[in-house]
Write a structure and sequence with these properties.
The protein is mainly beta. The chain has helices at about 25-30, 295-300, and strands at about 5, 20, 35-45, 50-60, 65-70, 80-85, 95, 100, 105-110, 115, 130-135, 140-145, 150-155, 170-185, 200-205, 225-230, 240-245, 260-265, 270-280, 285-295, 305-310.
Length: about 300
């Protein structure tokens, strides 16, 4: 089963607590969605995948890294399968290999073997930078892109990837400074120019009415909340490659439901379920559910996306 995780930058949408959501700072300003996270966001790969693509946007690549690790219950939990570190182009010791600073480059760490083909390409440290990496355990290939340009690729690392699959592996996305945003993680190929854009609502269809604070409280199983996307931010040339339905906050009380189905409906009203998410009792919690597709602005305007409560 394939997956696609999409997060504009909300800390509460990661699989484990840790990061913080920020709406100030330069990264939130640069992002078209005006939100970012700072700290370490963790995503647990949910399928028996042999490949993973991951990407995010950041202002300051030197303070960003990806780490892919097995779950803590593994006897080999201390081994890093793959790590990318974006080194500081100004010579600060953010990138090290064999005790030597790496100035303006990328280093990979596979198992207990370091490898580096370092680049001198410098990115604008006061701009919106899109970073992507790929790991293919079947062929032993890794590749890294910066702003759509492939800056590093190496094959023949299969011997260092002695793992059957990536099920339950954790992707650690670290971001210091002014944060990072617009995360996409998938076991299917991502395009280097993919990005995340929050769309407003062109209409709401719900089985309950909101209270005076605009809060929707669901009391019967199967009750639904759907929104029709406002596609005015899109152009006819845009290709939509994935959707995420987000609710924040979203939580259950002591007598409430424990789960929600992530759903969409087409022009005829037919409902499709894209997964199930668990609720917690934390009033600050949020949930999201994402799925891959390929569609156009016109077709997206006919859809509705949302959630249905269940026990």
């Amino acid at each position: 089963m394939s997956y696609k995780y999409i997060n504009p930058g909300y800390a509460e949408l990661f699989d484990e607590p840790g990061p913080s959501t920020i709406t100030g700072g330069r990264m939130a300003k640069f992002s078209p969605n005006h939100v970012a996270f700072t700290g370490t966001g963790i995503f647990i790969i949910p399928a028996d995948s042999r490949k993973v693509w991951m990407m995010l946007s950041t202002e300051h690549p030197m303070s960003t890294f990806f780490v892919l690790k097995p779950p803590l219950k593994s006897k080999n939990h201390g081994d890093t399968v793959i790590e990318w570190t974006y080194a500081d182009s100004f010579g600060n010791p953010h990138g090290m290999i064999d005790g030597t600073n790496v100035n303006g480059g990328i280093q990979g760490y596979f198992g207990n073997v370091r490898d580096g083909v370092f680049i001198t390409k410098i990115v604008d440290y006061t701009a919106y930078n899109r970073i992507m990496m790929m790991l293919d355990c079947e062929t032993g290939a890794v590749e890294c892109w910066t702003n759509g340009e492939s800056v590093y690729r190496q094959e023949g690392l299969k011997a260092l990837m002695e793992i059957e699959n990536l099920k339950d592996y954790r992707v650690y996305l670290n971001s210091g400074g002014d944060g990072a945003c617009n995360v996409i993680i998938s076991d299917e190929e991502l395009l280097p120019n993919e990005d995340v854009l929050i769309l407003g609502s062109a209409g709401i269809e719900a089985d309950v009415e909101p209270d005076s604070n605009g809060v929707y409280k669901f009391t019967e199983e199967g009750q639904k909340y759907l929104q029709q996307p406002d596609v005015s931010k899109l152009t006819d040339a845009d290709v939509i490659t994935g959707i995420t339905a987000i609710a924040r906050p979203a939580y259950t009380d002591a007598e409430g439901f424990q789960h929600v189905d992530i759903i969409s409906s087409d022009e005829s009203g037919a409902i499709t379920t894209h997964g199930v998410k668990n609720l917690t009792s934390l009033p600050s919690a949020g949930i999201s559910g994402s799925w891959a597709l390929k569609t156009t602005k016109a077709e997206l305007a006919k859809m509705k996306v949302g959630m249905a409560v269940k026990k």
